[in-house]
């Protein structure tokens, strides 16, 4: 059989990551590696109580402590504006929701453990910490509320008494009257209540920042691990410091993971910039793991009830959903948008003619929440896939048939959902059937019997998901020819470890006839890169790559025009190969360096390809697992993924993204538990108490694609950065639910299904 030679570069080529040599040899530079001469170090004094009125003393002693350069409190910030909310939403009643004030440093009241009280700058971190210990915080304790269901009950302690309620907003989608009519016609209604547990991102590199001020130019520079400097620059400058954004440069070096949580502006950034200007010295803050747990935005944390109306044939008539979404003590930067965009995907892959969904934000005395990998869409997929699984059991149709019966058929695409989402392409039954085949679904009964003979409970479960990502917009790309014949790409996305430099370079390399080592990719510098949308919502490759490709083609045209004059031939007779422009079929050529030298100007291509609609990756995950009823331990035995990502740019990078996201979902389902006690103390505030999944807990994960190109994206790409987290939780929990139901009669279990919780559920069912 003839086999095609794999492409070396270009879209679809399995190029290995060019970034890895720097990272694995330890020569990559992260924010904490930067310390200019004269750098001062900062420490944030944080609240040890979840809700209290505060007053401070000992400030003069702290300021006089050896090595201390500055102590800031809320009274010292010279008109610095509060932390902004950039997602103020229109509610179901047509009004815009209220936003509380979140000061950069609290002045009279703290509202969660970790709330910022004072900012100490000194010659060393230890000196700053020692000085902070001299500041006496007089706490007048106030009542605390941490449970989101308790928070919305009458008479509950209020986080914001001036608001009069712990309900932050009420958003929604759909047609309530039409949905209620569908339920009146239903032959069967399946109901469910689910907990989507609160998560802490726990990227490898905790946040840090370095602020510098140039008195001669009046400009600031902030070095920080971000998911996009341009957006952060504008928020810090315009919304907090009140300066022209042109006066602020943000540099992002290597970033050790982001997952959405490094997208946001945090208090330390404006504080360090403010201090650097006042002190005329660089000011650096480096957070530790405890800082991460009590200050960086948390994710998820929903309690949802839902009802599914079915006709006599098991076809969906209507869907009714109510989400309580924890916001924490304040509305975080994009916090209100997360449940709104998530619930827009409530129908999943199914033809749901009538829907009404409400999302109520809830204040509690806890760390604020915001986007975390998937940002609302994992919550939506988890709900509909747990609900449809239960409906399959109750109707007798079973796991696969109820899905197949209700999938939007390929013949109906493009299809607009009841929430206004437009699914363009896909083969939903096709990837489910392929996943069932690969996972040997039909052979499961024999494997379950074998486990039972050993005293174990075995289960298999699936999740067929869809998500919206790469939301409408574009990303400008500039590809420049350098004097030595190499090429530089300037683009405003921001790698956090995904392999952007490889993906972009393989496309440029194909167009310009270069090796990817001859291409430099510049991200993370707001002075060098004109504008940028950053990285989030799986946007970088779907939005960035079409612009990179068109900018490369534009540069190629300009190079050929210049080379045609030098070679005295027509443009159509030229090709770019191995760093040269050649006359096709001859040995006549000129190097790219020579073209650059003769051009008399910088040769560059700059393009921004925009798209008007999101993309919709989709797929099926199948998980098979075994439970030890005596210990509650859950062992994952097999895991299968069949996904539709449209056009694959790099299969090696794609597999890494999908498997990494899936592992995060498995970790949420089985391990990660964020626990606040009744006083608002975070009991799981370190990696000794907050368990993450380990490599030894995981099976080999089988991943393959069954792709249908997108019609909304210029290159047919659908995006893959978040997909693993969206398909994973329901697959694991549906498998676990089957194992516990068949083995012990357990009717329901929520995430995280830790061994103790699983054991408790088994004991309760036996009793």
TrEMBL record:
SUPFAM superfamilies on file: CO dehydrogenase molybdoprotein N-domain-like, Molybdenum cofactor-binding domain
Secretion signal span: none
Annotated InterPro entries: Ald_Oxase/Xan_DH_a/b, Ald_Oxase/Xan_DH_a/b_sf, Ald_Oxase/xanthine_DH-like, AldOxase/xan_DH_MoCoBD1, AldOxase/xan_DH_MoCoBD2, AldOxase/xan_DH_Mopterin-bd_sf
One family name in Pfam for this protein: MoCoBD_1
Residue ranges of every copy of the Aldehyde oxidase/xanthine dehydrogenase a/b hammerhead domain listed in the record: 25-143
Keywords recorded for this protein, A-Z: Molybdenum, Oxidoreductase
Designated name of the protein: Xanthine dehydrogenase family protein molybdopterin-binding subunit
């Amino acid at each position: 059989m003839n086999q095609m030679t794999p492409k070396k570069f270009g879209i679809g080529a399995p190029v290995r990551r060019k970034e890895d040599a720097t990272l694995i040899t330890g020569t990559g530079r992260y924010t904490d590696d930067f310390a200019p001469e004269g750098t001062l170090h900062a420490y944030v004094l944080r609240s040890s109580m979840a809700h209290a009125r505060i007053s401070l003393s000992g400030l003069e002693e702290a300021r006089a402590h050896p090595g201390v350069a500055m102590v800031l409190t809320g009274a010292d910030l010279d008109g610095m504006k509060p932390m902004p909310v950039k997602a103020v939403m229109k509610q179901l009643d047509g009004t815009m929701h209220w936003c509380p004030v979140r000061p950069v440093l609290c002045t009279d009241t703290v509202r969660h453990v970790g709330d910022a009280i004072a900012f100490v700058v000194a010659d060393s971190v230890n000196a700053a910490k020692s000085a902070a210990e001299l500041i006496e915080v007089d706490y007048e304790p106030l009542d605390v509320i941490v449970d989101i269901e308790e928070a919305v009950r009458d008479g509950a302690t209020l986080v914001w008494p001036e608001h009069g309620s712990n309900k932050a907003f009420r958003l929604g989608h759909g047609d309530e009257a039409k949905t209620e009519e569908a339920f009146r016609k239903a032959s069967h209604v399946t109901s469910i209540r689910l907990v989507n547990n609160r998560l802490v991102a726990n990227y490898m590199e905790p946040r840090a920042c370095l602020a510098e001020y140039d008195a001669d130019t009046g400009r600031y520079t902030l070095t920080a691990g971000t998911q996009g400097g341009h957006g952060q620059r504008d928020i810090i400058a315009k919304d907090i410091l009140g300066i022209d954004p042109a006066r602020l440069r943000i540099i992002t070096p290597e970033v050790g993971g982001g997952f959405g949580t490094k997208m946001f502006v945090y208090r330390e950034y404006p504080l360090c910039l403010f201090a650097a200007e006042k002190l005329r010295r660089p000011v650096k803050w480096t957070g530790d793991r405890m800082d991460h747990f009590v200050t960086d935005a948390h994710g998820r944390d929903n309690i949802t009830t839902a009802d599914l109306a079915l006709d006599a044939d098991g076809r969906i008539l209507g869907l009714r959903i109510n989400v309580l979404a924890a916001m924490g003590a304040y509305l975080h930067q994009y916090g209100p948008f997360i449940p709104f965009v998530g619930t827009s995907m409530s129908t999943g892959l199914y033809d749901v003619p009538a829907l009404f969904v409400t999302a109520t934000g809830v204040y509690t005395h806890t760390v604020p929440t915001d986007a975390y990998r998937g940002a609302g869409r994992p919550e939506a997929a988890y709900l509909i896939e747990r609900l449809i699984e239960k409906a399959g059991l109750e109707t007798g149709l079973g796991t696969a048939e109820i899905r197949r019966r209700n999938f939007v058929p390929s013949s109906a695409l493009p299809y607009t959902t009841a929430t206004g989402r437009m699914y363009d392409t896909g083969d939903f039954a096709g990837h489910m059937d392929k996943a069932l085949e690969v996972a040997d679904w039909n052979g499961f009964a024999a494997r379950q019997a074998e486990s039972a003979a050993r005293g174990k409970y075995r289960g298999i479960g699936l999740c067929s998901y869809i998500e919206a990502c790469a939301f409408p917009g574009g990303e400008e790309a500039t590809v420049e020819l350098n004097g030595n014949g190499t090429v530089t790409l300037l683009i405003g996305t921001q790698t956090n470890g995904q392999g952007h430099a490889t993906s972009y370079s393989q496309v440029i390399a194909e167009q310009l006839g270069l090796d990817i080592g001859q291409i430099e990719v510049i991200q993370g510098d707001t002075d060098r890169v004109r504008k940028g949308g950053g990285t989030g919502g799986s946007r970088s490759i779907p939005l960035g790559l079409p612009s990179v490709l068109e900018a490369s083609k534009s540069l190629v045209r300009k190079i050929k025009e210049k080379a045609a004059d030098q070679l005295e031939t027509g443009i159509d007779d030229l090709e770019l190969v191995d760093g040269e422009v050649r006359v096709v079929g001859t040995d006549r050529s000129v190097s790219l360096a020579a073209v650059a030298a003769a051009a008399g100007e910088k040769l560059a291509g700059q393009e921004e390809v925009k798209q008007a609609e999101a993309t919709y990756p989709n797929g099926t995950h199948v998980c098979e697992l075994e439970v030890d009823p005596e210990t509650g331990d859950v062992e994952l035995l097999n895991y299968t993924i069949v996904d539709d990502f449209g056009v694959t740019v790099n299969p090696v990078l794609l597999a890494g993204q999908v498997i990494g996201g899936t592992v995060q979902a498995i970790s949420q389902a089985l391990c990660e538990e964020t626990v606040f006690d009744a006083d608002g103390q975070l009991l799981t505030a370190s990696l000794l108490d907050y368990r993450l999944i380990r490599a030894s807990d995981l099976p080999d994960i089988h991943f393959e694609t069954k792709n249908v190109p997108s019609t909304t994206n210029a290159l047919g790409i659908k995006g893959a950065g978040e997909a693993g987290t969206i398909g994973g939780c329901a697959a694991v929990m549906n498998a676990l639910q089957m194992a516990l139901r068949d083995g012990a009669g357990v009717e329901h279990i929520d995430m995280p299904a830790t061994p103790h919780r699983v054991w408790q559920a088994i004991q309760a069912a036996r009793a």
